[in-house]
Amino acid sequence: MNSRNLVRLFMTTLFLGGATAGIVGFVARWNEYRSLFASGELGELLMTFFWLVGVGLIFSVISQMGFFAYLTVHRFGLGIFKTAKLWNAVQILLIAFTLFDVVYFRYESFSKGEGIAGYMGWAIVLLAVGLIVAFIKVKQTNKLAFIPALFFMVVVTAVEWVPVLRINDNSWMYFMLLPLLVCNAYQLLILSKLNEKSMKELASKKKK
Hints:
This protein is an all-alpha fold.
């Protein structure tokens, strides 16, 4: 990927993270901001929105760091395990382990006598979104992209999400997870298009 498309990826992902966090932050914590809206304190509401967007920009940067870290880890994994088949098997195990951790460790840390079923929702959301994005990635490229895409959407997103998993505050969990999912899905799905565009631009320069 050339530098222009790399900057484009960075800026568009940054925008998506900020915009998503701004919208989700208001929805998830509307009970706190409703009184400001009712009293007509639009200036304070606007400042709050900008604060939410600013936090979303941080989430976006975390997402981008995770994305480029995974690209590196993926190359190392292929090199260490020699074949894509073996590396995919390792990734499947890590996906299962991550989903188990999201359920079990939250249950162990925050359960107050309720059943474990109530702690499975977030893991199901991660898996469902991961599967959808992975299927789209396969349609864009080929079936070999399914496991790496699912791994990135589940495992890397969960790792990026750890700070709020530790506090178990639902509003913050929504607030951080949705921007991460949007940014991660966008980067994963746009990567092949930007690489293709970069190759065409390089070929065009060579012809000149």
